[in-house]
Amino acid sequence: MLVLAGTPIGDVSDAPPRLAAELAGADVVAAEDTRRLRRLTQALGVQVGGRVVSYFEGNEAARTPELVEALAGGARVLLVTDAGMPSVSDPGYRLVAAAVERGIRVTAVPGPSAVLTALALSGLPVDRFCFEGFLPRKAGERLSRLRESAAERRTLVYFESPRRLDDTLVAMAEAFGGERRAAVCRELTKTYEEIRRGSLKELAEWAAPGDVRGEITVVVEGAPEKGPAELGPDELVRRVRVREEAGERRKEAIAAVAAEAGLPKREVFDAVVAAKNAGRGA
């Protein structure tokens, strides 16, 4: 059996009760960072009973077959990452997929999740949301990815490096609009936990000095539902541009935006042509 074990995202006392028993009883413990695993087991007062192997981004592809063979031979393999649930922006997906393909049972020890914790604390709608993981590091690719989600009405959740937070918030303000509400969740459940809420423009100004530290989760409000009367030419052009950048032909993008807005295709087409003539792109 493969067991995915959630680990604390900050406060070690948040460790699920089953975690200690699984660490002691597993035949193999695959850990993203064996040193962090050692600190965790010391804090929990538990001794790992089986063999410990490293399983991180750099060796995930090579080590997966070895772990699958151990599972096929009857071993109980426990997978732990540095924080949160394995395979959620952490190593684990390859191993789960390979185990499922071989007909091996996969289960989990539920634990803390930065995604759900940030979402719950954000003060933004939680009934529908989507997790986008880490954005691309390159500025152009990051902005393009954000523009693809500009019309998404569900609440959006992202992980981000503190080194790129200021640039990412500026890009979000450009792609989504500076007035879109958001929350930056820093160091969740840790001593210096901070939840900063405001518009993307306000948050970008706050992060501008570039001195924000710690592990970061960003939650962004979904796109508001607008009626045809509220969608001005600039918004229509922006929506067409987003679809074009995602790979649609202009004719198809115009038709799709017109259908979304409940407007004649000619009105959207005229807005695009006017923007092009005025040098505003599209």
UniProtKB/TrEMBL annotation:
EC number: 2.1.1.198
InterPro entries noted in UniProt: 4pyrrol_Mease (IPR000878), 4pyrrol_Methylase_sf (IPR035996), 4pyrrole_Mease_sub1 (IPR014777), 4pyrrole_Mease_sub2 (IPR014776), rRNA_ssu_MeTfrase_I (IPR008189)
Catalytic activity: cytidine(1402) in 16S rRNA + S-adenosyl-L-methionine = 2'-O-methylcytidine(1402) in 16S rRNA + S-adenosyl-L-homocysteine + H(+)
Any one GO BP annotation for this protein: methylation
UniProt cross-references to SUPFAM superfamilies, sorted A to Z: Tetrapyrrole methylase
Entry GO MF terms: methyltransferase activity
Compartments, record wording: Cytoplasm
Tetrapyrrole methylase domain residues: 1-204
Gene3D superfamilies per record: Cobalt-precorrin-4 Transmethylase, Domain 1, Methyltransferase, Cobalt-precorrin-4 Transmethylase, Domain 2
Keyword entries, A-Z: Cytoplasm, Methyltransferase, rRNA processing, S-adenosyl-L-methionine, Transferase
CDD domains, alphabetized: RsmI
Pfam families tied to this protein: TP_methylase
Family note: Belongs to the methyltransferase superfamily. RsmI family.
Reported function: Catalyzes the 2'-O-methylation of the ribose of cytidine 1402 (C1402) in 16S rRNA.
Name of this protein: Ribosomal RNA small subunit methyltransferase I
Organism field: Streptomyces flavofungini
Gene this protein is translated from: rsmI
